[in-house]
Amino acid sequence: MRLTPEPTTLGVVGGGQLCRMLAEAASPLGIEVVFTDPTPDAPASAVSRDQIVGGFDDPDALARLADRADFLTYDIELADPDVVEEAADEAGVPVHPNPDTLRTIQDKYVQKEALVDEGVPVPDYRAVETRDELADAADELGLPLMLKAREGGYDGRGNFAVETRDDFDEALDALEGPMMAEKFVDYDRELSVIAAQGDGETAFYPTTETIHREEILRRTVSPARTDASTRRRAHEVARDVLETMDGRGVYGIEMFEKDGEILVNEIAPRPHNSGHWTIEGARVSQFEQHARAVVGAPLGSTELRAPTVSVNILGEDGERDVSLAGVGDLLASDARLHWYGKREERPLRKMGHLTLVGEDGGDTDELLREADEIHDELRFEE
Amino acid sequence: MRLTPEPTTLGVVGGGQLCRMLAEAASPLGIEVVFTDPTPDAPASAVSRDQIVGGFDDPDALARLADRADFLTYDIELADPDVVEEAADEAGVPVHPNPDTLRTIQDKYVQKEALVDEGVPVPDYRAVETRDELADAADELGLPLMLKAREGGYDGRGNFAVETRDDFDEALDALEGPMMAEKFVDYDRELSVIAAQGDGETAFYPTTETIHREEILRRTVSPARTDASTRRRAHEVARDVLETMDGRGVYGIEMFEKDGEILVNEIAPRPHNSGHWTIEGARVSQFEQHARAVVGAPLGSTELRAPTVSVNILGEDGERDVSLAGVGDLLASDARLHWYGKREERPLRKMGHLTLVGEDGGDTDELLREADEIHDELRFEE
Question: Choosing among A12, A22, A47, A278, which should be mutated to test the B contact, i.e. which has the most B CBs within 10 A?
Answer without folding.
Answer: A47
